[in-house]
Specification:
about 100 residues; mainly alpha; single chain; about 0% strand; 4 helices; about 55% helix
Length: about 100
């Protein structure tokens, strides 16, 4: 298990030290990353934090419109009539449903 200690009196020119406890799964993942990349523990954790930061900031910028834009509704979406003719469209949909 890796331990890092945190100095709460950090100057701007020095790097902070933190204590982190890793469960078995996280420790195994860290070891696999180290073996596959040759990175040190510190470098692997730094790179992981940077990737997570970018992912979080990207998700935070996603607006409802962005999600809607990704949906493929096709031409006209799922609507059966124009939005200005909702009443007529509803009557037609009911007639189709009832078979009249």
């Amino acid at each position: 298990m890796y331990y890092f200690s945190y100095d709460s009196h950090i100057r701007m020119s020095t790097m902070g030290t933190r204590t982190v406890r890793l469960d078995e799964e996280s420790e195994q993942a860290l070891e696999e990353v180290r073996q596959q990349t040759g990175l040190s523990v510190s470098a692997a954790l730094k790179q992981g934090l940077l990737v997570l930061r970018d992912e979080v900031s990207r998700d935070a910028r996603t607006t409802p419109y962005d999600i809607y834009q990704e949906l493929d509704l096709g031409p006209g979406g799922y609507g059966s009539t124009k939005s200005t003719q909702v009443r007529e469209g509803a009557v037609e949909a009911i007639k189709r449903k009832l078979g009249r």
